[in-house]
Structures are given as structure tokens and as C-alpha cells.
Design a protein that fits this description.
Shape: extended
Largest sheet: 3 strands, mixed
Strand order of the largest sheet: 1-3-2
Oligomer: single chain
Helix content: 55-70%
Structural class: mainly alpha
Strand content: under 5%
């Protein structure tokens, strides 16, 4: 049976159908490529963020340069060649021996640790130093941090070997080692106290900024800082606003009730200055986290416009442990200036 011209036209694929099929195939292929790309970026971004050791923004180093670089002990690659930290490198070997006393009980000797660190090194961007030096640095630094924190928190009384400057150095943003390296080493230790690494670290730093045990893992909400002007302490008191010290579990628990500004007491010293500077720097480098410290400093710097304001806050018990001329407290104003600058360039 022969087909007529009209029959040939009937079995010819419609151009619209062809175009629709091509568009559907193209759309499906591009969707798949997009999904594959997103998955790849998620994996690489996650890895990159976990190994990143941030640099402090230059504006903050101008406020207080001595809170940025380590004074005694260097952690990580940035400051390891400074003359002031070289002497302490010898002490890290003692902490390595101490940590090995834990790992050997679990069959994890130095050879296994080196192999594990070498595997991690291949996934890290170790461009500042050689691979062998990088592995040694990661082992010594992580063993020192874990050994120091474990010894410090496992004694009822403050240990005789504790050095306040070392604790400050461990707070510094540029003086860090990637957290997953500490996790790997801590898992090899398998300490008997059962604490997670996060809890161990919180207990360690909690000794300097004490809180109740049940509050150590909780977070207090801090309202975002407003650009709206807040008067300084002197002007607030002239306006009839009272300022009172309150007991709180966090220095961020600030309230205003019945014409009274309620503020927890805080000690301003070398430790808290280092803490604030580096936490603000971290908030600047990681914009996805809440800016608790930046908001607090912005608020306090509004209250402080002169040394008289500092004196009044000291008399009310809000600020303690400051120098006789009150000049050290004025670093709050310097930090606030930087926060304003960073807001405008963000």
C-alpha cells in the first residue's frame, strides 16, 4: 500500500515538538550541571572554611596591635618565625610527650599520628611552609593546645604552670590551627573525662570569664546594634537616667527598665581587650555569624565619651580593673571608630 503526500506529512515530526524536546533536554542537562556545580562548591567551601586561619583586618590592628600577634607561643604558620616565640617551641615537645601518654594507651603511636596528619596536610593549603614542617607544626601545636587545656581544666586549683599570656595568645585570631585537626588529635587521645572538645575549650576559657556550669553552652540573644545615637553616661545621668550594675551570666544581658539602665559588671584588662578585639575580627571575617561582640562594644563606646564617663561607670561597679588614669578604657572608642568604618566599606 502506498502512502500519499498527506500521509507523509502526518508522520513527519512537528517542528514545535522537536524544539520542545530539545529545550527540555537542554534544560534538564543544565539543571544537572548546576546541581553538580552547587554540590562541588558546597564541598569545597565547607572544606575551605574549616581550614581557614583568618587575618585580622588592618583597621583593628591599628586599634591595639599587641592584641593581634602572639607574645609567647605561636600557633599556626603566620607568626612562627617571630623572635619572641622561638624559645617556647621547646616546651611544645613536652606537651607532645604528655599527649602521647594518652594516645599510646589506645594503640595510637607517633607513627600513626604522623600518617594521619600527612593525610590532612594533603587536603590543606600549606603554601607558607614545606609539607614536612607543616605536619610537624600541626602535631606540636595541636598537642600543646590540647595538653595545656586538659591539664588546666583537670586540676581543682589553678596549676602552677599556667601563664596568663599563653591563654591570651590562644585567643588570637591569627594564632590558630584548624579545628578539625584538634578534633582528630583529641579523638586519638580518648580522654577519660568524657568531655567533647567543644566543652573542654569552653571550660578552659570559662576560667577567665566565669559563668555557671549550666550556662556554659547556652547563648544569650543580643539585639542588633542600632545606628541611633545613645548618649554618654554623663549626659544620661543629667537626663535622670540611672545606671545600675546587675548580676548576670553574660556581659551581654543589658536591660532598660523604669528609667534605669542595667548593665553587668565587666573587667577591662589585657585578657578582655584581647578577647574583644579578636572576636570582633572574627565577626568581621565571618559575616554569617551574629555580631554579639561588635554590638556590645558599639553600645559601650556610646556610653563612654571621656575619662569622666569611665570614672562614673567605675563608681557604679560596671567597669573594674582599669588603670588609674582610665586611658586603657578608651580603646572602646577606638574599636567603635573601626566598626563605623567597616560598616561603610562592607
Amino acid at each position: 500500500m502506498s502512502l500519499g503526500a498527506s500521509d507523509h506529512r502526518a508522520i513527519q515530526p512537528d517542528n514545535d515538538d522537536i524544539e520542545s524536546r530539545i529545550e527540555a533536554e537542554t534544560l534538564a542537562r543544565m539543571h544537572k550541571q548546576l546541581e553538580d556545580r552547587r554540590s562541588f562548591l558546597q564541598r569545597t567551601t565547607s572544606r575551605r572554611s574549616s581550614v581557614c586561619i583568618y587575618r585580622v583586618p588592618p583597621s583593628l590592628t591599628e586599634v591595639s596591635a599587641n592584641t593581634i600577634a602572639p607574645e609567647i607561643v605561636s600557633i599556626g604558620p603566620y607568626h612562627r618565625d617571630r623572635d619572641t616565640v622561638l624559645k617556647f617551641e621547646n616546651y611544645k615537645w613536652s606537651f607532645l610527650d604528655y599527649v602521647l601518654s594518652f594516645t599510646r594507651r589506645n594503640g595510637n603511636d607517633l607513627d600513626k599520628i604522623i600518617r594521619s596528619m600527612s593525610d590532612l596536610e594533603r587536603s590543606a593549603d600549606a603554601t607558607l611552609i614545606s609539607s614536612a614542617d607543616f605536619v610537624e607544626m600541626m602535631i606540636l601545636d595541636s598537642c600543646f593546645i590540647l595538653g595545656y587545656m586538659y591539664l588546666y581544666t583537670s586540676q581543682e586549683d589553678e596549676p602552677t604552670f599556667s601563664i596568663p599570656i599563653v591563654t591570651r595568645d590562644l585567643l588570637k585570631l591569627e594564632n590558630q590551627t584548624p579545628f578539625f585537626i584538634l578534633e582528630m588529635m583529641y579523638d586519638l587521645m580518648k580522654t577519660i573525662n568524657g568531655d567533647s572538645l567543644e566543652l573542654l575549650a569552653l571550660k578552659f576559657f570559662n576560667l577567665k570569664l566565669p559563668r555557671r556550669d549550666e550556662e556554659i553552652l547556652k547563648s544569650t540573644y543580643t539585639p542588633p546594634y542600632s545606628d541611633q545615637s545613645i548618649q554618654c553616661v554623663t549626659l544620661l545621668q543629667r537626663s535622670g537616667i540611672k545606671i545600675r550594675r546587675v548580676k548576670a551570666n553574660s556581659f551581654r544581658e543589658i536591660n532598660f527598665k523604669k528609667a534605669t539602665l542595667q548593665i553587668p559588671s565587666i573587667a577591662i584588662n589585657d585578657y578582655t581587650t584581647t578577647l574583644f578585639i579578636n572576636c570582633i575580627a572574627l565577626e568581621r571575617c565571618t559575616p554569617h555569624i551574629r555580631t554579639h561582640f561588635s554590638a556590645y562594644i558599639a553600645f559601650m563606646s556610646c556610653l563612654i565619651n571621656s575619662t569622666r564617663d569611665v570614672t562614673l561607670l567605675g563608681q557604679d561597679g560596671i567597669i573594674t580593673s582599669f588603670s588609674q588614669d582610665d586611658q586603657d578604657i578608651l580603646f572602646l572608642v577606638g574599636i567603635q571608630t573601626v566598626i563605623v568604618i567597616l560598616k561603610h566599606i562592607a
